[in-house]
Design a protein that fits this description.
Layout (H helix, E strand, L loop, with lengths): L3 E2 L8 E11 L5 E11 L9 E4 L4 E7 L2 E2 L6 E3 L2 E4 L7 E9 L9 E5 L2 E5 L19 E10 L5 E4 L2 E7 L5 E12 L6 E4 L2 E8 L5 E8 L8 H18 L7 E7 L6 E2 L4 E5 L12 H16 L8 E2 L5 H19 L2 H21 L10 E2 L8 H18 L1 H15 L3 E2 L1 H12 L7 H5 L5 E9 L4 E9 L14 E8 L20 E4 L3 E6 L7 E4 L8 E4 L3 H10 L3 H20 L6 H4 L1 H14 L6 H7 L5 H8 L5 H18 L1 H10 L10 H19 L3 H13 L3 H11 L5 H14 L3 H13 L5 H9 L9 H14 L1 H4 L5 H14 L3 H8 L10 H15 L5 H11 L1
Parallel strand pairs: 2-12, 18-19, 19-21, 22-24, 25-31
Antiparallel strand pairs: 1-23, 2-3, 3-9, 4-8, 5-6, 5-9, 7-8, 10-11, 12-15, 13-16, 14-15, 17-18, 20-21, 25-26, 26-29, 27-28, 27-30
The structure holds (3S)-3-amino-4-(1H-indol-3-yl)butanoic acid and zinc ion.
(3S)-3-amino-4-(1H-indol-3-yl)butanoic acid binds next to strand 20 and helix 2.
């Protein structure tokens, strides 16, 4: 349980040049022969014993250069293999080992999912397959032979290109050989064997290389792969056009499995996916599912260059591949769909997941300086904030120089394992911009506060923007250095138009981009005829918390006129958030969410919703109120989740009544969305219509609940079905029960859709939701062993039901702790992720805070895995 430190990095003592693996696949005892061509690393200091990583691997035999070693010449333990005396030049280490895939419930290494063999090696799973230098800076080429029973495993896949296959004479077995010419670290190794259906297509790269594309899924699911395949081809084309990156093997295989700890894995040439992120048919997947599939298929594909061809030197550099690849997938989706809406969704995601992490006990830099268990660092900070850092770099360098910088990065480091410093050096060298201060963004945790005020001087006709950056203390980092912050702004004149921005020194800011570099800084704009309305942090140009002296009237003005679509949406959110926090602070006070301000908000929303030149999806986003978690975040302390819900429900009611006719009009007008298509316009119409329905039902009129029930009954696609079910779910009404029962009957044998049924109930805010969720643990269709089902029920409850999880009597906390303890025994990675839901416990009102603390202390006294120990101990602080 000792932390590892970035500052302790040392190059490996040995290198592995080629890896020859031979798998004899059997569910309960798989034998692996590994021939590793090794040599001492010239960069390492003195000759040292050879120490290989291993976890739960049984060593059967070991030889060096073909000569078997005697038991006193090595030592093999649960955690590794040491050979004190190896040749001083190149040598071949031959290992014969065994593992038990069937018993592997941690889902790391070689395991079984639905009768198939599959692997998950990132970050440290390869050591569960054989002894190895299981670290990302050891790059080797692989040749893999898989041999298995032919009838139950007709499909045999590994990385790279297929080179040979055949039957094993005199047996029921067959084999396949795969070669991957690209050197890779062990975490990118993958193997799959099983009885799977195949959907094929092809792609011709810009240089004319023909690539075979295959998606492997469970039999019977072939009709749910079209969208994933289309997304893959779009991603391949986009990466060529936008970043000049071309695919580099003859085949690209995707395998969908139903037991997977995360979303997907970018293994070279053989991506393995959680089937949730592959399978989609209009009646089984919602628009959000379609968008997620498009994004994750692209993400894993984009890793081929950002992650695979150039990888991380060590796991502290995880953001190097994840932040950059998230940025790339965000840009891809924004290019394919309505860009501003994608930005809104990404920022909402960042604020709801990363901001709480960055302000709580688990706060860590985008590039952490230490960790106990690397599995715990696949976080919103590394991924989403990491992507924001790449976005800021693109903003500050400009698209062209950013592209040049990336080209240089690919050229310089292809085939290497590198660091964040290498990445920034390439961008700096290509653009000529000094990025040394930018490194603070990677090394300093916490969300900076950008406090802004605007002074207008009537006499000189100047407006001065005063900015200070406040860098909050985070665990282990009490003091911080100021950081370069790209701040995109606009100043609106009295008619809502953007005023030209001229700085005192005469510089014209055509793009409104300022760069804040000091703790305190002022920017004076000249030629401003009347006091302007500031629109700050346009496009959310930096991951900061903006605070400013601005009144509700100015926010309303921005809501009606801001030319920046992001800030226009942000203004609507800020307006609603102000009313909601005023209502929920200290003790619930209904006035702000019932009075004058609420009516003005409602009218402004109606105006925007009726603006036909705006995209449907955008208008839909405008109609969505801040979530209960958004309000909690705004309140920052003394959080009472019941007061928050009451405030939000009241505002929903006020708006639902105030603009009832507009909402009903929108709902009716968008009734015919035609045959289902996941494209932006069709999905936007559905989203806007459902947002209107939500407010209509919120009005409290009885016939509106009937409207939701009818919406469910008339649904011809999963989007309409699931969102109407979500709207009905908290209501004590027979129509809710009927819809819930209908959904179950229809989908009880379809695992992915049934997950939605569990999730809707878990998210539904009801006084008895803890008991409902507890009861569902014993449902015959529930299993703690399947991560998707666990996330659907327990994860949705802990992260998507603030009133249920934070129930006053602490029952929600106890429930989560009990579940996590049970899961921790076999899947520590999963358990630790669930425990992340406690991250904001210190901001709760005292009674809830005390319950959460008691639960965490109980957990700390239990027997925990290293993963859960790290989360619990750091959360308690
Ligand atoms: N790079 C992948 C990470 C991942 C993972 C990590 C820990 C345990 C299981 C895992 N499965 C996939 C996912 C990605 O970001 O692309
Ligand atoms: Zn990734």
């Amino acid at each position: 349980r000792q932390p590892k430190h970035l500052s302790d990095y040392a190059a490996p003592d040995y290198l592995i040049e080629t890896v020859d693996l031979d798998f004899h696949l059997e569910p309960e005892r798989t034998i692996v022969h590994a021939d590793l061509a090794m040599r001492p690393n010239p960069e390492a200091k003195a000759a040292r014993p050879l120490v290989l990583d291993g976890e739960g691997v049984e060593l059967i035999s070991i030889a060096v250069d073909g000569k078997p070693l005697q038991p006193d010449e090595y030592s093999a333990t649960e955690t590794g293999l040491t050979v004190p005396d190896v040749p001083t030049g190149p040598f071949t280490l031959s290992l014969k080992t065994a593992c038990n895939p069937e018993a592997n419930e941690a889902l790391l290494g070689l395991y079984r999912s639905n009768g198939a063999f599959c692997t998950q090696c990132e970050p440290e799973g390869f050591r569960r397959i054989t002894f190895f230098l299981d670290r990302p800076d050891v790059l080797a080429t692989y040749r893999v032979r898989l041999e298995a029973d032919k009838k139950t495993n007709p499909v045999l896949l590994s990385n790279g290109n297929p080179v040979e296959r055949g039957d094993v004479e005199g047996t029921d077995r067959h084999y396949a050989v795969w070669e991957d010419p690209h050197p890779k670290p062990s975490y990118l190794f993958a193997a799959v064997a099983g009885d799977l259906a195949k959907i094929s297509d092809s792609f011709t790269t810009q240089s004319g290389r023909e690539v075979a594309l295959n998606i492997y899924v469970e039999h019977g699911k072939e009709d749910r792969c079209d969208w994933a395949m289309e997304s893959l081809k779009n991603a391949m084309k986009w990466d060529e056009e936008r970043f000049g990156r071309e695919y580099d093997l003859d085949v690209f295989n995707i395998v969908a499995v139903s037991d997977f700890n995360m979303g997907a894995m970018e293994n070279k040439g053989l991506n393995i996916f959680n089937d949730k992120l592959v399978l989609a048919r209009p009646d089984t997947a919602s628009d959000a599912d379609y968008a997620a599939i498009e994004g994750v298929i692209a993400h894993e594909y984009f890793h081929n260059w950002t992650g695979n061809r150039i990888t991380c030197r060590d796991w502290f550099q995880l953001c190097l591949k994840e932040g950059l690849t998230v940025f790339r997938d965000q840009e891809f989706s924004a290019d394919l769909r309505a860009g501003p809406v994608k930005r809104i969704l990404d920022v909402r995601n960042l604020k709801s997941r990363q901001f709480p992490e960055d302000s709580g006990p688990l706060a860590h830099p985008v590039r952490p300086g230490s960790y106990i268990e690397i599995n715990n660092f696949y976080t919103a900070t590394v991924y989403e904030k990491g992507a924001e850092l790449c976005r800021m770099l693109q903003t500050m360098l400009g698209r062209d120089d950013f592209r040049k910088g990336l080209d240089l990065y690919f050229e310089r480091h292809d085939g290497q394992a590198v660091t964040v410093e290498d990445f920034l050096a390439a961008l700096a060298d290509a653009s000529g911009k000094d990025l040394s201060e930018f490194m603070h963004w990677y090394n300093q945790a916490g969300t900076p506060e950008l406090a802004c005020s605007l002074d207008y001087d009537q006499q000189s006709k100047t407006a001065t923007l005063n900015v200070s950056q406040i860098l909050p203390a985070t665990p282990g980092q009490p003091n911080k250095e100021p950081m370069p912050i790209p701040l995109r702004i606009g100043l609106l004149g009295p008619n809502g138009d953007d005023l030209p921005l001229t700085l005192e020194d005469g510089t014209e800011l055509s793009d409104g981009l300022l760069e804040v570099t000091e703790r305190e800084q002022s920017f004076t704009f000249t030629g401003i005829p009347t006091p302007p309305t500031p629109s700050l942090l346009r496009e959310f140009s930096a991951p900061v918390r903006l605070t400013q002296t601005i009144d509700l009237e100015q926010i309303e003005f921005l809501m009606m006129h801001d030319s920046d679509p992001f800030n226009r949406w942000q203004a609507a959110q800020s307006y609603a958030a102000k009313l909601l926090t005023d209502a929920a602070r200290d003790r619930y006070n209904p006035e702000p969410v019932k009075g004058q301000g609420a009516s003005r908000l409602a009218k402004a929303l109606a105006v925007t919703a009726n603006e036909e030149e705006l995209a449907y999806a955008y208008r839909g986003e405008m109609l969505k109120l801040p979530s209960e978690s958004d309000i909690a975040r705004e309140l920052a302390r003394n959080i009472d989740t019941d007061a928050i819900r009451e405030a939000r429900e009241t505002l929903r009611e006020t708006i639902g009544n105030a603009i009832h006719a507009d909402l009903a009009g929108i709902y009716e007008e968008l009734a015919d969305t035609g045959p289902y298509s996941p494209d932006g316009i069709s999905a936007g119409k559905r989203s806007m219509r459902i947002a209107a329905l939500d407010l209509l039902v919120g009005s409290g009129k009885d016939d509106e609940l009937e409207r939701a029930a009818a919406h469910y009954r008339g649904a011809t696609n999963m989007t309409d079905a699931i969102y109407s079910l979500l709207i009905l779910a908290p209501h004590d009404d027979p129509r809710r029960d009927e819809a819930m029962a209908d959904f179950y009957e229809r989908w009880k044998d379809d695992a992915l859709v049934l997950d939605k049924w569990f999730a809707v109930q878990a998210r539904s805010a009801r006084p008895d939701s803890v008991e409902i969720v507890e009861g569902l643990l014993s449902h015959p269709k529930f299993s703690l062993k399947n991560p998707n089902r666990v996330r659907a029920l327990i994860g949705s409850f802990a992260n998507g039901n603030p009133t249920g999880f934070n129930r006053k009597d602490g029952a929600g906390y106890e429930f989560l702790a009990e579940c996590a303890l049970r899961i921790d025994k076999f899947n520590p990675h999963m358990a630790a992720r669930l425990l992340g839901a406690f991250e904001s416990w210190r901001f709760l009102e005292p009674n809830r805070e005390a319950h959460a603390k008691a639960t965490l202390e109980g957990l700390a006294n239990a027997e925990l895995s290293t993963d859960s120990y790290e989360i619990v101990s750091k959360t308690l602080g």
